[in-house]
Automatic annotation (TrEMBL):
The chain crosses the membrane at residues 12-32, 38-59, 71-94, 114-137, 149-175, 187-205, 488-512. One of its GO terms (molecular function) is phosphorelay sensor kinase activity. It comes from the Bacteria. Keywords: Kinase, Membrane, Transferase, Transmembrane, Transmembrane helix. It comes from Litorilituus sediminis. Residues 251-472 form the CHASE domain. This is histidine kinase. The lineage of its organism: Bacteria, Pseudomonadati, Pseudomonadota, Gammaproteobacteria, Alteromonadales. The keyword Nucleus does not apply. It is an enzyme of class 2 (transferase). It holds the Pfam family CHASE. It catalyses: ATP + protein L-histidine = ADP + protein N-phospho-L-histidine.
């Protein structure tokens, strides 16, 4: 399969998975949830792969929409989907443009400064596109224009930033091989730590979101219970007041209009939903004429019994056996037109008076249109039948003679003002609608149809005195527009900043490690170049010294030949001896210079051979005394008892070291009396450090010489004389050092050290046996 096709399928699968996962994981469900993560993933894929990733986003989008419609049963808004897709593509190309030079030149992780710039560009800056598009999508998806959309902006911005800063660096690291400068352990640590940090942040934010939605649901259910309780309480208050009015008529043989109005005034004086109280006595057809005349006189109103016709018009009631005309109404204002209305003639779908007469309880009517100021508002009639006392006889549940039924008390109730006060006077955050669903066609009692888009919605059914009321509740605003608590903001902002800081620190560690590696490589390269330069200079110096040595030895050899000829002729005066001595010094100086040159060029090899160190010191002592006795100088050798008898080292090199050391000490201290002390410090594995210490107690040494010695430091010793240069180079070659100091008594002290190996007992026995065999052979 071609590489481009492989990238296309991989990008499509990853993009689709991220889109669906974002919708399913993030709470609450909304189309804006997938925009930020999808834009971040698309940005990373387009940055590294370009066209195949872009085609994958375009092709996957309709598949994603079809999946939502078919499997998740979500009616996706096409305009919102198009805006989201365009925003995702725009953010991807903008992010690619912002970080192009960092990615193209592969320098985004090579320094902490470049990493920080890359981090800010690919995260907070590029994510502004998806955040702004989320505002437009939120308006289209939720169909709201009012409210605060700042949380929507911050939520989309946060999700896009977090996915970008965790996803894009990882795909770049895998694509660019930037981690090749890191060890496998560091590489594994950075990748695993980044993945674990991303999962931890996801879990933390998911837990926070679930907690927020749990609190939101609890708040919604609590408000639902409060509304249910308040409505039930209001209905209960209405029924209680109606029962008290019924008890008034039940307890009296006759209730006058004045008594009715006084009693009703006390009831309506409370903050109640009752609009009017009515009394409809039972009147037979024989009583109709007399009743209308008496009512006209008492009410000062042309009172006739009427009934309601089609079109809600009132006309004279037809002849029937029994009437129940409205006789007392409180308040009469705005209610005069219904005086004399026969409630028996009410339509049965609104309220069946036969059902009221047969019931011992209050019966509610279906909602009816009542004039409310300048408009009609739905109202409910609560009606109860009133029977007169029958001298201890029980009342049947069957409809009895008309004389046994006194009449009906009616409460005209409108809940609009009460419910409006409820909504306006509390922190309620839900909209609700109350409907009467007893009949096949529901009747609206209060409110308008509530919006269900991205809101919590619930219904409850209340049995209200032979009627069924259904209350539909929904949040006033979707979650993204609702006001948020400070805990929500702290978790959103704190979690986002914490995750960004954590990922930045992880990548900073990688960048710092690469910086150090680069610095080490630069230093190593510089050291290699310096070493090569030094070797070239050393070779040139060695070549120069060899040439100079050869050129000096030719006239020096001629001088020695002339001295031999002088001696053969018997000329051996003081001048000849001085010339001979000078030629020997020059020859020794040339040998020292050659030794120093060979040591600096690395050609000198230190041997590791066992020899008798005490015998070696005795021979060196004799040699030093023989060389110095003619000059009137003395050397005393002191050997510490801890010094081993046999060591493994280079006997010739140590001899040259001691000879040069003696010469340098004599020149440095400017004295004729020196004491050479030999000490040892033993290490592990038969390793030891030998110390050769020259000190003097010559009182004839001038104070100026002592002051000059004290003014010297260790680094100046090599420049003091050629002999001291030889000592320092030889000591360094044998893993030692040269030190200059002062004794507590005031005298000078010069020491040098070398590393040696203490000869094992087995080697000592072999050496002694070999020496004994050679001595026997000579005998």
């Amino acid at each position: 399969m071609p590489l481009g096709l492989q990238r296309f399928f991989f990008a499509s699968s990853l993009y689709f998975t991220v889109c669906v996962s974002a919708l399913m994981v993030m709470s609450p469900f909304s189309l804006i949830n997938y925009v930020g993560p999808a834009a971040a993933v698309a940005s990373g894929l387009i940055i590294i792969w370009g066209a195949p990733a872009l085609f994958a986003v375009i092709v996957t989008t309709p598949i994603f929409v079809a999946f939502l419609n078919k499997y998740l049963l979500i009616d996706v808004h096409i305009a919102a989907t198009l805006i989201a897709t365009l925003a995702i593509i725009l953010q991807s190309f903008w992010a690619k443009q912002l970080v192009h030079k960092y990615v193209f030149y592969r320098k985004w992780l090579r320094s902490r400064r470049w990493l920080l710039q890359f981090f800010l560009r690919v995260g907070p800056l590029a994510s502004l596109v998806s955040a702004v598009s989320a505002l437009v999508i939120s308006v289209i998806d939720n169909q709201v224009m009012l409210g605060s959309f700042f949380y929507t902006f911050m939520s989309a911005w946060s999700s896009s930033m977090l996915v970008s800063v965790f996803f894009i660096p990882l795909v770049l690291l895998a694509q660019e091989q930037e981690l090749s400068q890191l060890s496998v352990s560091k590489r594994f640590f950075i990748v695993s730590a980044s993945v674990l940090a991303g999962l931890a942040v996801l879990l933390l934010l998911k837990t926070s979101q679930d907690e927020q939605q749990y609190q939101r649901l609890n708040r919604f259910l609590q408000e639902k219970q409060d509304i249910e309780r308040v409505i039930k309480q209001e209905v209960h208050d209405v029924i209680r007041q109606l029962n008290s009015l019924s008890a008034l008529f039940n307890a009296s043989e006759k209730v006058t209009r004045a008594e009715f109005e006084v009693f009703s005034e006390d009831i309506l004086g409370e903050n109640t939903s009752i609009r009017a109280l009515e009394w409809a006595p039972i009147i037979t057809d024989e009583q109709r004429t007399a009743f209308e005349l008496n009512a006209t006189k008492e009410l000062a109103f042309n009172y006739v019994i009427r009934e309601r016709a089609k079109g809600n018009k009132l006309y004279f009631a037809q002849k029937r056996e029994v009437y129940a005309p409205l006789y007392y109404i409180y308040p009469k204002e705005n209610n005069l037109e219904v005086l004399g209305l026969d409630v028996y003639s009410n339509p049965k779908q609104a309220l069946s008076m036969s059902q009221v007469a047969l019931s011992e309880h209050i019966v509610a009517s279906a909602p009816i249109a009542l004039a409310q100021e300048n408009f009609n508002a739905p109202g409910v009639l609560f009606t109860k039948a009133v029977y007169k006392k029958n001298n201890g006889e029980e009342k049947n549940n069957q409809f009895k003679e008309a004389q046994q039924l006194v009449g009906f008390v009616v409460a005209v109730v409108q809940f609009d003002k009460f419910l409006n006060r409820l909504v306006a006077g509390s922190d309620i955050s839900v909209n609700f609608q109350i409907e009467d669903i007893t009949d096949p066609s529901p009747h609206i009692i209060y409110g308008k149809s509530v919006s269900r888009l991205n809101r919590h919605v619930d219904t409850l059914t209340l049995p209200i005195y032979s009627r069924l009321w259904q209350i539909t509740l929904a949040e006033q605003q979707p979650w993204f527009v609702q006001d948020k608590s400070w805990q929500v903001w702290v978790m959103l902002i704190g979690g986002t900043l914490g995750a960004l800081t954590l990922q930045l620190l992880l990548l900073m560690m990688a960048a710092y490690s690469i910086e150090l590696t680069q610095q080490v490589n630069n230093k190593t390269r510089a050291v290699i170049l310096a070493k090569e330069k030094s070797e070239r200079e050393s070779l040139a110096k060695t070549h120069f010294l060899r040439t100079l040595n050869d050129e000096f030895r030719v006239p020096l050899q001629a001088i020695r030949v002339f001295i031999e000829q002088f001696k053969q002729k018997g000329i051996n005066n003081k001048q000849v001896v001085g010339i001979n001595h000078a030629s020997n010094n020059i020859s020794q100086l040339l040998d020292t210079m050659m030794d120093i040159s060979e040591i600096e060029s690395g050609k000198t090899i230190v041997k590791e051979e066992a020899f008798d160190f005490y015998g070696f010191l005795n021979r060196v002592e004799l040699m030093l005394k023989a060389n110095n006795i003619a000059q009137g100088k003395s050397i005393f050798l002191l050997i510490d008892k801890e010094v081993p008898h046999f060591i493994d080292s280079d006997e010739l090199r140590i001899q040259k070291l001691l000879i040069a050391f003696t010469e340098g000490a004599q020149a440095l201290f400017n004295t004729d009396s020196l004491r050479l002390s030999v000490k040892v410090h033993t290490h592990l594995h038969n390793r030891a450090t030998l110390f050769f210490i020259y000190s003097h107690q010559d009182e004839s040494t001038s104070h100026e010489s002592d002051d000059a010695v004290k003014a010297l430091v260790d680094e100046d010793l090599a420049s003091f004389s050629t002999a001291m240069t030889m000592v320092k180079e030889m000591s360094n070659l044998m893993q030692g050092s040269v030190r200059l100091g002062t004794l507590t008594s005031g005298g000078g002290m010069l020491s040098t050290s070398i590393k040696v190996t203490v000869t094992s007992q087995e080697k000592q026995d072999q050496h002694q046996a070999q020496y004994f065999d050679e001595f026997t052979h000579l005998d």
